[in-house]
């Protein structure tokens, strides 16, 4: 059974930092490309960062480049998102998910997400 448990989100002031964690179960994160998403109130869910299956390449959305770093820990089957220089527009619920083949129903599974609020 695929599950994701995201954590680490909280209220933080602009310019602050957070590290989000996503611990997966039911599969091995090093066997799939992994993605961090976020969804702000009233907006569509968007991709924040995508790590290749090999873990040697990460693509970031332009608005977070130079501020966010995605990493993974195979021992703990966990992916991380280090977020620095946070801005109010980073406020959202953050999720992680594996890049399943389109025909794979496991692609419909999401975790509960973790709320990040950037505000003074």
What would you say this structure looks like, in words?
With 120 residues, the protein is mainly beta. It is built from no helices and 10 strands. The radius of gyration is 14 Å and the shape is globular. It starts with a strand and ends with a strand. The mean pLDDT is 97.
Which features would summarize this protein structure in a list?
4-stranded antiparallel sheet; mainly beta; 120 residues; 6-stranded mixed sheet
Could you outline the blueprint of secondary structure elements for this entry?
Blueprint: E1 3-7, E2 11-12, E3 18-25, E4 34-39, E5 46-51, E6 58-60, E7 68-73, E8 78-83, E9 92-98, E10 114-118
Parallel strand pairs: 2-10
Antiparallel strand pairs: 1-3, 3-8, 4-5, 4-9, 5-6, 7-8, 9-10
Short description:
The protein has strands at 3-7, 11-12, 18-25, 34-39, 46-51, 58-60, 68-73, 78-83, 92-98, 114-118. The protein has 120 residues and is mainly beta. The mean pLDDT is 97.
Please give the number of β-strands.
Answer: 10
Distance between the termini: 40 Å
Alpha plus pi helix count: 0
* Uncertain parts: none
* Percent helix: under 10%
Mean pLDDT value: 97
Outline? globular
Order of helices and strands: EEEEEEEEEE
